[in-house]
Amino acid sequence: MTLSDPTTRTVRTASALNEAFERHGVRMAYGRNAEIYAQDDAVELLYQVVRGVVRTSRLTLDGRRQVGDFYYAGDIFGLEPGPDHRFAAEALDDCEILVVRRSAVRALAGDAALDRAILEAQRLEMERLQEHVVMLGRKSARERVGSFLMSLVRNPDDGHVDLPMSRQDMADYLGLTIETVSRMLTQLQGEAIVEFPSSRRFQVRKWTALEALAA
Question: What is the CATH number assigned to the segment(s) 6-125?
Answer without folding.
Answer: 2.60.120.10
